[in-house]
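Annex B, item 7. Sequence and structure tokens for protein A, then protein B.
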Amino acid sequence: MSERFGRIRHGLDAAGRDQATVTTSLMTWVYLGVDEEAWLARVERARRLDPGAGPFDAYLADVSRDCIVGTPDRAVSRVSEYAEAASSG
């Protein structure tokens, strides 16, 4: 997220636009479970419903990069990372 938000900030600066005039947001999927087994089961269920999904390991790597996955503690940590990325700059 830092890289994506950084590109937005850079573009605003290049255009001479105040960064505070733009609201950044993020929409993503959340795969949450009380333990690893529970959230992995949710990822597998989503993979089965996705006609373009490949093997589980590749799908898991993809959603882990772009989505919030894991236990509640892990999800809180990821949301904190996103908040930091959005506010830095």
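Protein B:
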Amino acid sequence: MSVARISIVEYQSVDDANVGIEKYKNIAPEIFAEAQYLNVTMIAEDTAHFLAVYPNQQAADEALQRRNKHVDSMKEHIRDVMYYEGDVEWQWFP
């Protein structure tokens, strides 16, 4: 069963958000290579909603280690970060 991880990141400022999103765009395909789907949605000027869907729990767990390392490397730009994880019950791709 697919596993989704949703991260909400509040950046220190709009400029920090821009730095964070650009860095994510450049490294996400490499550090989350096993993801089936990656998405970033800006839910405020300085807050991003990240969605990653993995094929199984093992892939999600392996990616979590790299995610935590990435977040640590960005800590001077981040005010707060939280994440949720769960089984994907349904998805639709038209």
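Comment on protein B: The chain is about 35% helix and 35% strand.
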